[in-house]
Design a protein that fits this description.
Layout (H helix, E strand, L loop, with lengths): L13 H11 L6 H11 L2 H14 L11 H14 L2 E3 L20 E5 L8 E5 L6 H16 L3 E4 L5 H8 L5 E4 L13 H7 L4 E4 L11 H12 L2 E4 L7 H11 L3 E4 L10 H8 L3 E2 L3 H12 L20 H10 L5 E2 H8 L3 H13 L3 E3 L4 E4 L1
Parallel strand pairs: 3-4, 3-7, 4-5, 5-6, 7-8, 8-9
Antiparallel strand pairs: 1-2, 2-6, 10-12, 11-12
Helix pairs in contact: 1-3, 1-4, 3-14, 5-6, 5-11, 8-9, 12-13
Length: 372
C-alpha cells in the first residue's frame, strides 16, 4: 500500500501548524499538491514563499490567493471554541489508516472522543432512500460489529448511514462530514452528531463555515473508506454515491463488501453488480470480521518519505515546452511524462507544480495528471 504522508511522529509546533494551515487553504493547493510542495521545498513556510513564482511560471495571469497568517490564527481559534482540533497525519487522534493515503488531508478537523479514531474501523454506507429491510440489516450489522470492538464509520447521511450510526452509538461511531463542522448536512442530523460525539467522533477536512456542495461528497467518501479496514455497501442503486465509495475503497486497497438484494429492487442493483465485479458477499458481521482479521494483524507502517532538496534551478523553456506538449485532456502518468520528455523526475515535478498552481493541471487517482 502506497504511503506518501508527511508527518510521522510527534506533534507539529504551533508555528508549523499555522504554516500548514496557510498552505492547504491557499488557492490551487490540495492534499497531493501540499505534499509535493513540502517534500520538494522542505517546509510549508518555504513553499508559501515560492507559490507566486511557481504560479507565474505555470502561466497564471495572476498568482492565486495565499491564506494569511491572521486568517490561519482566526481559524485555529474558532475551531478550538467549537472543540475541533486540527491534526496532522501521525499525530495522536488522526486515523492511522487514513494517514497512509497519498491524498490524506494535511490537517484534519477532529471533534469528539479522539481515542475512538485509533481503533479498527469498518465503514457502512448505502442508499439514502433505503428499504425497511436495508435499514434493519444495516442496524444489526453495525450493532454486531460494534459489539466486536469495531468503530463504525459512515457519512451522516439519511437512510443507511444514519441507521449504522445510531446502532453503534455506545461502541463508538465516526461521522465523516462533507462540509465544515458547523455546517451539518442534512441539518436534521445535528442531534445525531451531538449524540455520537460522546463515544465517537466527527471529522472534516473543510474549513468552518463551508456549506457542502455536490463535488464535496466524493471527496468526503475517500475519507470514509480511507479511515476503515473495509467498506460494506448495504443498498445502492446504479450511479449511487455509495458505489463511488466502493470504487475509491478498491483504489485505496481496502476490502469491499456488498449485501445481496432482490434483483427486482433497484436499490439492490448496485450491490448485486459489486458482487459480480468481485466484492465479497456478506450476510452477517462474522463474514466481515473473518475477512479483516488478517489485515488487523499487520502493523501499520508509515514510512518516512524521501525529500528532495529545494531546487536552485528553473526548468528551461525547451524542457517546459516538451512536458506541456505531452499533456492534454486525457490523463497520463508521471512515469510516462518522465520517459517521453527525457527530463529528470525533479524537472517534471516542478513543471507539474507550476501548471497546477496556475490552475491548469488536474490530478487524478493512481498518479495520473491531465491539462484542464
Amino acid at each position: 500500500m502506497d504511503d506518501s504522508s508527511i508527518a510521522r511522529a510527534t506533534k507539529l509546533t504551533d508555528a508549523e501548524r499555522i504554516d500548514w494551515l496557510r498552505l492547504i487553504r491557499s488557492d490551487q493547493v490540495g492534499p497531493r499538491t501540499f505534499r509535493t510542495l513540502v517534500h520538494h521545498f522542505g517546509s510549508a513556510r518555504t513553499a508559501l514563499a515560492r507559490l507566486p513564482d511557481l504560479a507565474r511560471r505555470g502561466g497564471a495571469a495572476r498568482p492565486g490567493r495565499i491564506f494569511s497568517e491572521d486568517e490561519a490564527r482566526a481559524e485555529l481559534a474558532a475551531s478550538g471554541r467549537l472543540g475541533v482540533s486540527l491534526l496532522a497525519p501521525g499525530e495522536a487522534g488522526y486515523p492511522p489508516r487514513l494517514a497512509m493515503l497519498d491524498d490524506a488531508p494535511p490537517l484534519l478537523g477532529i471533534r469528539g472522543a479522539v481515542d475512538a479514531l485509533m481503533r479498527p474501523m469498518i465503514a457502512i454506507v448505502g442508499s439514502r432512500n433505503a428499504s425497511g429491510a436495508g435499514l434493519k440489516f444495516a442496524s444489526q450489522l453495525a450493532h454486531d460489529l460494534s459489539d466486536a470492538g469495531f468503530v463504525i464509520a459512515s457519512g451522516l447521511a439519511r437512510g443507511i448511514d444514519q441507521a449504522a450510526h445510531r446502532a453503534s452509538l455506545d461502541g463508538g461511531t465516526l461521522a465523516v462530514l462533507a462540509g465544515g463542522h458547523d455546517r451539518i448536512y442534512p441539518p436534521e442530523h445535528d442531534d445525531l452528531l451531538i449524540s455520537l460525539l460522546a463515544s465517537g467522533a466527527a471529522i472534516s477536512e473543510m474549513p468552518l463555515g463551508h456549506v457542502p456542495r455536490a463535488r464535496d461528497f466524493p471527496r468526503r467518501n475517500r475519507l470514509i473508506s480511507g479511515s476503515a479496514l473495509g467498506v460494506v455497501v448495504v443498498e445502492a442503486a446504479h450511479r449511487s454515491g455509495s458505489l463511488i465509495t466502493a470504487r475509491i475503497a478498491n483504489e485505496q486497497g481496502r476490502e469491499v463488501f456488498a449485501v445481496p438484494g432482490s434483483p427486482l429492487d433497484p436499490r439492490a442493483a448496485g450491490t448485486n453488480d459489486l458482487i459480480k465485479q468481485g466484492a465479497t458477499l456478506i450476510t452477517k458481521a462474522a463474514d466481515v470480521i473473518s475477512a479483516v482479521e488478517p489485515i488487523m494483524e499487520r502493523p501499520i507502517e508509515l514510512r518516512e518519505p524521501e525529500r528532495s532538496n529545494p531546487p536552485d534551478f528553473d526548468p528551461d523553456a525547451n524542457e517546459r515546452a516538451r512536458i506541456v506538449d505531452l499533456l492534454g485532456p486525457s490523463p497520463v502518468s508521471l512515469d510516462d511524462l518522465i520517459r517521453m520528455s527525457g527530463a529528470s523526475p525533479a524537472i517534471v515535478r516542478v513543471v507539474l507544480l507550476e501548471l497546477e498552481l496556475a490552475g491548469r493541471l488536474e490530478r487524478h487517482g493512481g498518479g495520473l495528471v491531465s491539462l484542464i
